[in-house]
Specification:
With 74 residues, the protein is mostly helical. It is built from three helices and no strands.
Length: 74
């Protein structure tokens, strides 16, 4: 899942970014499935070369926003 070129600091920052993004998930969207969705979006950004904490948080927040938009369409 995580490329071997990702160092321990990056993994830690990914975990913190995931936590920050999931803190703003509305209660009705807070599920294991949706947390995995957010994590995958962060991981995708990291695998594309992102190494800044801000970029990781941004990817997580964008994923949360996508989940919110999807819920509004239902």
């Amino acid at each position: 899942m995580v490329a071997q070129t990702v160092d321990k600091r990056t993994i830690l920052e990914m975990e913190i970014a995931l936590t920050k993004a999931c803190e703003v998930l509305p209660r009705e969207l807070d599920s294991h499935k949706n947390r995995c969705f957010v994590a995958k979006k962060i991981l995708k950004r990291v695998n594309a070369g992102e190494r800044t904490f801000g970029g990781m948080v941004s990817a997580g927040m964008a994923a949360v926003e996508a989940l919110r938009r999807k819920q509004e369409q239902v």
